[in-house]
């Protein structure tokens, strides 16, 4: 069937015309699911406003090592350095394949392993992995693995001397502002400069990240790149606060009585914690890289994975700093921006704006202005709602403190939408990855025709209706946790006020409703394919 015949037959909205070209789009979430999510949002909002704020209780946990058979396997895996190194090696091999394919393979994005594996599988699937496995991606990250092997010159175990200058990171850089700037730059490269459809540029970007990780490890103590600079690691870290798993002490009393702190200092064989964490005082997963050093070095074997409520950290335990609050809000804004740029109407918007400012070519100036506006507008709106909340509660707390504490509302809103959005990419656009693995350089391959794209699109597994139900469920999940965050953080900040009530948190609640509604609107629109 020719593309013209296909276009004449298809009337389900999967093919549309954008800028004069026929383009495949993913169908949006049906209106009925939008109505269901909206109804649940209304009920949850009324519940919050009518329920008095009560003291939060510690949620129950379950140590996975308590499981029969499986518990012993988990303990074995987490206490053996060679196991993690083996998995890292597989990750590095795939990474090197991406580099080779990007530098020497076909420039056709959908036929090249570099672009298919990086953007349609890894980047789309990474957020889903965080939902189930927390920060475990950081433990097998090829950027860090290659940097460590180059600088430490060992596959595993501690290297002494460790071939680093071991400088302390300058105070000005001991924040995650660099990670936010790099994440913004990565978004500009991905969506503005078109790196996602350029295998060569994808390979160069991957190499740049390895160079940054290696330079950081060569200059600074421990792993400053992972802690302060890596935009992917910080994204994974903040999202992991909503993961149902965590790496924590089995018995807190054992840590309380520990004086040697092997989890922090390491041992003669095991490296110290790369991000300066002490297991006995660990309350949030943001900076934990799941590297396994603590579980391998603890003489009491008192470190293990455990299950918990996904809302525990964001509600009870995490205490953010000013830079962390901005990163959370920036993450929400950039995730929203990703969605907007994949709407069919984005091309006409950016084209019309480019004409107004007399931009031409790739319209990078136009795109950059749009990115800045999209980044600042949600944060400005949030700041306004925080100011109104501060006014209504008559609190004497500083604006900065209220802004910082309530910023946790951004994490469930961003994470839920990011998951729902990425599921579309992962399930619809990863089809054909096996064929690309068989021919990673894309030798003698032609671009996918419109009919090939369409029939791939029709092979969606699981069924599209299941995908829609999961997306709607994720939006409900994100909003309900956001409601809990507002409720709990409001109690933490304003419980000294005699006249305090949940109604005075209405501005922040409206912010959560507005952002979820906007995310829902984007999910209900047709979305253009990445490649």
Question: Can you describe what's shown?
Answer:
The protein is mainly alpha-helical. Among the domains are: 1-59 and 322-531, no CATH class; 243-313. 61% of the residues lie in helices and 5% in strands. The chain is built from 24 helices and six strands. The protein has helices at 3-9, 31-50, 70-78, 81-104, 113-133, 136-139, 142-152, 177-192, 199-219, 224-229, 231-239, 252-256, 262-265, 293-297, 312-317, 322-341, 344-356, 364-393, 399-406, 410-429, 433-438, 450-457, 464-494, 506-523, and strands spanning 15-18, 21-26, 62-63, 245-249, 303-307, 527-528. A three-stranded antiparallel β-sheet has the order 1-2-6, with helices on both faces. A three-stranded antiparallel β-sheet has the order 3-5-4. Strand 1 (15-18) and strand 2 (21-26) form a beta hairpin. The chain is globular, with a radius of gyration of 24 Å.
Topology:
Blueprint: H1 3-9, E1 15-18, E2 21-26, H2 31-50, E3 62-63, H3 70-78, H4 81-104, H5 113-133, H6 136-139, H7 142-152, H8 177-192, H9 199-219, H10 224-229, H11 231-239, E4 245-249, H12 252-256, H13 262-265, H14 293-297, E5 303-307, H15 312-317, H16 322-341, H17 344-356, H18 364-393, H19 399-406, H20 410-429, H21 433-438, H22 450-457, H23 464-494, H24 506-523, E6 527-528
